[in-house]
Amino acid sequence: MRFSLASVLLSVAWLACAHSNSVTTYAPLPSTASGPPVNSEGFRVQSFGEGAYMLADGIYQSLFFVTPKSVIMIDAPPTTGENILAGIRSVTHLPISHLVYSHHHADHIGAAYLLANKDVTIIAHELTAYELSLTPDAHRPPPHVTFKDSYTLRVDNQTIQLDYKGPVHDPGNIFIYAPKQKVLMVIDIVFPGWVPFASLAEAQNPTMFIKAHDLILEYDFDYYIGGHVDRAGVRKDVLIQQDYIQDVYNNARTAILLSNSPPNATNPLSASTILGPIEAANPDNAWAMFAGYVDTLAQYCANVTTEKWLGKLGGADVYTYSHCEALVESLRIDYGVLGPFGVQPS
């Protein structure tokens, strides 16, 4: 018996409701957050021309290229599952010859085992191979071919450039570019029409996540595949998210600087105003004090940022707080904006 992704999500939502007396209601999504619907089987195939296709299930996206003799598959999300093959078969019955891993995370390549066989060559960055070796998983077979900086995959009439530019999301996350079709795929960085997933999309290195936007814009692309949500993106989507992230950065930085200023009627973020009540309620509990400090700054950042972006990007009221929290911490430890925890003038 087969279940569509929509039916699974509906069941999860029902279970959440059944175990909660109330469910948070968020702002309506802007129209730019929505893409074309999936078909009755739970997937959608979009052609970018000259043998390049996006395969989407409404939440996750993958990419494939058809040559005269075979198919090159990029990623294998488990939410798409068996529909990966169904999506390819809706275009061609040629066999899969290559499978490229964008990075090691299971939510993007956890269905690789459905495609892997002796005739499929798996390609990934060497750090992706290393990450996979730390948590061996039969659903994510190790790659046969790895590279360090760049790798050009040429199969018949298709050329795909694979570039590593640093840990923009996690170690081994690569830029996947098809110059003929001007398609760029970088997973878990830009979410067209939406704010990123929680905590800068779970980026291990916030500074590289921010830099990734500039790296993306160095490519000449007409279509951008971010790996998530409903639709493909264009250059404008990258620029919009870059502006949003810059606002989060600026507002988080302002919050830290305000916390290092004396308390007054217009500055509720002064460290003494924040920490005094927490210390009184939790004597000698340094973690309670610091958690309350970061939470207050992140909430200020989230309030200011959300006020501007609500209605412009989907989920602005869902995940902006988590991005603010991540950048308050990153500004402290990566950028050296320490506020009241830095060396104070005598």
From TrEMBL:
Signal peptide residue numbers: 1-20
UniProt-listed InterPro entries: Metallo-B-lactamas, NDM-1-like, RibonucZ/Hydroxyglut_hydro
Classification via Gene3D superfamilies: Ribonuclease Z/Hydroxyacylglutathione hydrolase-like
Keywords: Signal
Family annotation (Pfam families): Lactamase_B
Domain Metallo-beta-lactamase as annotated: residue spans: 59-228
Classification via PROSITE patterns: PROKAR_LIPOPROTEIN
UniProt name for this protein: Metallo-beta-lactamase domain-containing protein
Species of the source: Trichoderma gamsii
Phylogenetic classification of the source organism: Eukaryota, Fungi, Dikarya, Ascomycota, Pezizomycotina
